[in-house]
Amino acid sequence: MAVEQYSPPGLRYSLDALEPSISGQIMDLHYNKHHQTYITNLNKALKETAEALSNGNLVKQLELQSAIKFNAGGHVNHTLFWENLSPRSTGDSDTASAAPKLHQDITTALAIQGSGWVWLVKNELGGRLEITTSKDQDLPVPGNLAVLGIDMWEHAYYLQYWNNKKEYLNNIWAVLNWNAAGKRYLGDRRAIYGDLAGLASRL
After folding, report:
1. Residue 58: inside a domain, yes or no?
2. Which residues are annotated as a binding site?
């Protein structure tokens, strides 16, 4: 049985291109280590699940479900996150100054206890925009389409900002890719998740 395997998305910018908002050191650790670990663990869990299916090992299949959900979520969320960012020189973040209320509301991320994500989502039925959060590597709840996501795990900011999440949020604002967010807002699930749409739909 062929098992689908995943690989890291290519970045449209160099690891140090988001400085001073996000240091090259953090990007290297975050992209090359943390994101790659989610992918490695996801591929391993998918391969082991396929083996368990062929052997009829239901217990093993059930045991692997949490690993698949966590690591697949990590891969999908981080892929969206890299697309959410853009060097200042590209001009993709220029419209940020026109959204002060959104900036203020996104600081709900400061209320996240433990690790998780803050999302700007569009409700699929009414098209209304909302700020939500999710724990660990969970995606936005079904019915909400991710327009913009910010990683609030400590590995995303601690080396540079220590425990100052507010400073991290204030600085990441300058490199948020509003061009990509606008395309997601106007698009559907496939437009948002791209090649990972199938994987995202199973989480």
Report:
1. yes
2. 30, 78, 151, 155
